[in-house]
Design a protein that fits this description.
Distance between the termini: 90 Å
Number of helices: 4
Order of helices and strands: HHEEHHEE
Radius of gyration: 32 Å
Structural class: mainly alpha
Shape: elongated
Bound molecules: zinc ion
Amino acid sequence: MDFFEKLTETFAKNSKEFADKAKDYAEVAKLHTKINAANTKINESLITLGKAYYDAHKNDGNTEFEAIFEEIHKAHLTIRKCQEEIQKIKNIKICEKCGEEVSADATYCSHCGAKLKTTDKKEESDDVVEEAEVNQAQETKASDLEEEAEKKTVICPSCGQELDADAEFCTKCGSSMK
Ligand SMILES: [Zn+2]
Ligand SMILES: [Zn+2]
């Protein structure tokens, strides 16, 4: 066997070993992927199980998992508080019928036309409300002029209310805009 034959043989042997190793790695990687997928399935099922248990026992009181129940309850409260804060900052409320965001002072939902719950504003005396609204209107004129110019609006043919161009229902009188 001359030098070159030997070299070729060695090379062939090495590349076969290399190929076998690569195959092993690929096989192991595949198995890891399967394990991960199975773990994900387990976790998803545990969450489903936990939710079902929580719903079934959240009102029992003094359960074995009292502390965890309390944690979940607190987290729910935090979520609700944050959502209320967001609504206040964005000056919106959530339509109870369709779940869409609508302007805080809307009487009807601009998405589904449902009559909306009135806000706490009504508890103030009429004078205060009117004054507040006038001030608000002036502020709007002063600071939001540019924004107003860019915002596309339509006028309700029934009541004259100015509405977002994509409103499907008038927020003041509830007329369909389609
Ligand atoms: Zn709605
Ligand atoms: Zn209208």
